Amino acid sequence: MSSPFGLLAELTYACPLHCAYCSNPLDLAAHGDELSTAEWLDVLEQARALGVLQVHFSGGEPLLRRDLPELVRRAAELGLYGNLITSGLGFSRRRAEELIGAGLGHVQISVQSDTAEASDRLAGTRSFERKLAAAALVKELGATLTLNFVLHRHNIDRLTGMLRLAEGLGADRIELANTQYYGWAWRNRTALLPAREQLRAAEDTVRAARGRMSAELVYVLPDYYENYPKPCMGGWASRQLTVAPDGEALPCPAAQTLPLPRTGVREASLSWIWWESAMFRAFRGTGWMPEPCRSCARREVDHGGCRCQAFQLTGDPARTDPVCVLSPDHHLVAEAVATANADPPEELVPRPNPGRRSVHLDRDDAQ
Ligand code: SF4
Ligand code: FES
């Protein structure tokens, strides 16, 4: 058991986009008030004391928090490497200079497709041109730029165009992540899951691009099409922790759906939560594993897969991830894949605006 390496600081669930693949919780009204600036500053200090080296400021849209520069500055003073995960909306020149001047080293911008028409349709709002402008600002001001494309049935055929776009913007890193089916994405799973032929074509495109592109190219396969699950979060509560907007501390962003006792930073120290809390200890190591994981040679490789996916598909977070071909529940995944390859695609249902009122939101900058 070791200290966490990364903190995902989810500053707000508010967001100007309406992505059909959003993984944030569905029941935002059930969550408490956002942490104040002072509470976040304290979380950063506690995280550093616990051993965290990287902080990912995320959301929702973290640029909506008017105190973001203060949090970025404090993180840098503490020696934390700061990464901003953003839609790019609200990344004005003033804001960009302020944040990068405060020590922000890395900006990850999500783009939904390769043209304004396609990207704006998937984002549910006009945003493409502002994303390009934000990417250009990151490069101009000398921070590292990652472009993140979440892939699914409705954009994966445009991968060549997305790579060309990322290259043109000078991205240092390109992340091609197939959709994970949590939150709103779960509702859209049938509509989002790509067909096998689409994936084959995408893999060919990625292979060819790797040979010629200088940017780091990360391609995350959809695990529904794999034989074995992903080693989710690098193992439960082993490297990363998430603090949600209301201060709930979680081993992964989707863990709030699990039937486990939850503790927030308003109730206990981050150190206690990491080392002692029931949620963080629930699936650490291999002692919790059922068969077939318990006696499997891969149990230290994939850690039995994803607990949230196991819960989503079977109702029991302690079962083997059904993505695994050895799981007694694998038919649940096989059936979804069969449907994606047999039936005509369903329409995507965009996420309603997940905006929430908060005294910390900077509404002007998000317009
Ligand atoms: Fe991984 Fe468990 Fe499947 Fe083995 S049985 S490959 S440990 S999920
Ligand atoms: Fe929660 Fe995989 S997303 S363990």
TrEMBL record:
Q: Record's SMART domains?
A: Elp3 (SM00729)
Residues reported in the UniProt entry to bind [4Fe-4S] cluster: 15, 19, 22
* Database matches in Pfam families: Radical_SAM, SPASM
This chain's source organism reads Saccharopolyspora griseoalba
Q: What is its EC number?
A: 1.21.98.4
* Membership in a protein family: Belongs to the radical SAM superfamily. PqqE family.
Please state what the protein is called: PqqA peptide cyclase
Q: Keywords on this record?
A: 4Fe-4S, Iron, Iron-sulfur, Metal-binding, Oxidoreductase, PQQ biosynthesis, S-adenosyl-L-methionine
**Cofactors named for this entry:** [4Fe-4S] cluster
InterPro entries cross-referenced by the UniProt entry: 4Fe4S-binding_SPASM_dom, Aldolase_TIM, Elp3/MiaA/NifB-like_rSAM, PQQ_synth_PqqE_bac, PqqE-like, Radical_SAM_PqqE_MftC-like, rSAM, rSAM_sf
Indicate the enzyme's highest-level EC class. Answer: oxidoreductase
Q: What's this protein's function? A: Catalyzes the cross-linking of a glutamate residue and a tyrosine residue in the PqqA protein as part of the biosynthesis of pyrroloquinoline quinone (PQQ).
Q: How is the cofactor bound?
A: Binds 1 [4Fe-4S] cluster. The cluster is coordinated with 3 cysteines and an exchangeable S-adenosyl-L-methionine.
* Enzymatic reactions: [PQQ precursor protein] + S-adenosyl-L-methionine = E-Y cross-linked-[PQQ precursor protein] + 5'-deoxyadenosine + L-methionine + H(+)
Which pathway does it operate in?
Cofactor biosynthesis; pyrroloquinoline quinone biosynthesis
